[in-house]
Amino acid sequence: MIKEQGAAVKPFRSTEYELIVIGGGPAGLAAAYNAWQSGLRKILIVERDRELGGILNQCIHSGFGLEYYKEELTGPEYAGRFIRQLQGTAIEVLCETMALEITAGREVHITGKRAGYAILSAKSIVLATGCRERARGAVGIPGARPAGIITAGAAQRYVNMEGYMPGKRVLIVGSGDVGLIMARRMTLEGASVLACVEIMPRSGGLVRNIVQCLHDYNIPLLLSHTVTDIRGRKRVESAIVSEVDENQLVKPGTGQVFDCDTVLLSVGLIPENELAHAAGIVIDGQNVSTSAPGVFVCGNALHVHDIVDNVTLEAELAGSAAARYALAC
Ligand SMILES: Cc1cc2nc3c(=O)[nH]c(=O)nc-3n(C[C@H](O)[C@H](O)[C@H](O)COP(=O)(O)OP(=O)(O)OC[C@H]3O[C@@H](n4cnc5c(N)ncnc54)[C@H](O)[C@@H]3O)c2cc1C
């Protein structure tokens, strides 16, 4: 877990900024630092979590930075490099602070332990709020609703950051990278991972993750399969997995029972853009600029990235664009 907070110890002191970055993950960190290098001197990062680093804090596996640093780093190591860069700047950081609302006129409403409720203004804003996981409702998995059904990312945070083990006999639904990585992680922590179930005829995960997280641990990957029932009263007791045809329709009579106490869902990520949507700001999914002048977006908030190195490069573009805008105001 990253303890260094760079400028995080500096007190909150101003309501007017050249740039406010919302989200202190790799996108927000790179955007803020690039804006500093481009000449801005009044920059604030607002982060709702206890510390900077974003999703990388829970990604303790290696595989980050192969392109950007030409090195293989863990998630916290990758984020740590950017956090350390902030120490040489006067960029302000407010952790445990949530941005509740933004306006097209570049006001940012925040709330948190240190700032209370405050309305800040900025010449430019970078939205770097990351993404969220699709949950059971989004894929319509039928069955009971007992405890033990959680997203793979939530399980990753429980295991790697909070020190909780979410279950002992695990079924993974969806073969995206988060699910694959959690199949290995749960195995290493002593759980039995019974299978990874994927409705499509191929996995959406990186080949390296299929090999290193499933094949190396003899975890079956059931392609063209889906969960057709979850059973259990208080806790998950079993799940039924059935084969599907090329139209993703369940083939009758193919159901197999998996005795599991936990179902981990890895069924897609969605950019976290509620602040922009509520303000009527349009994000096109490709460009770091938005429909609101001076409001920029980058990282998984713009579109979901597989590789963090690409997040960094895109965030640097957003940071320099935000700096150009603020300096011209
Ligand atoms: C499980 C997993 C494994 C991965 N493995 C790899 C890998 O092996 N190699 C690789 O290169 N990439 C990997 N990635 C991808 C990479 O981690 C992401 O692409 C990258 O972290 C995205 O950065 P981000 O800053 O856009 O989002 P995030 O890291 O999610 O950061 C967004 C931040 O915004 C904050 N935030 C959101 N809303 C608000 C708000 N309203 N107010 C204040 N703060 C807010 C959040 O708390 C969070 O800290 C993995 C991703 C996951 C999920």
Could you please describe the fold and organization of this structure?
- The chain is an alpha/beta fold.
- It contains eight helices and 19 strands.
- It has helices at residues 26-37, 75-86, 136-139, 152-162, 177-188, 207-214, 274-278, 308-328; strands spanning 16-22, 43-46, 62-64, 73-74, 92-94, 97-102, 107-112, 116-127, 131-133, 149-151, 169-173, 192-198, 221-223, 225-231, 238-243, 256-258, 262-265, 269-271, 295-297.
- Strands 1, 2, 5, 6, 7, 8 and 19 form a seven-stranded mixed β-sheet that branches. A five-stranded parallel β-sheet has the order 10-17-11-12-13.
- β12, α6 and β13 form a beta-alpha-beta unit.
- α1 packs parallel to α2 and α5 packs parallel to α6 (207-214).
- The chain is elongated, with a radius of gyration of 21 Å.
- Residues 22-28, 46-49, 54-56, 59, 63-64, 98-99, 128-130, 153, 156, 177-178, 181, 272, 275, 299-301, 305, 307-309, 311 line the site of flavin-adenine dinucleotide.
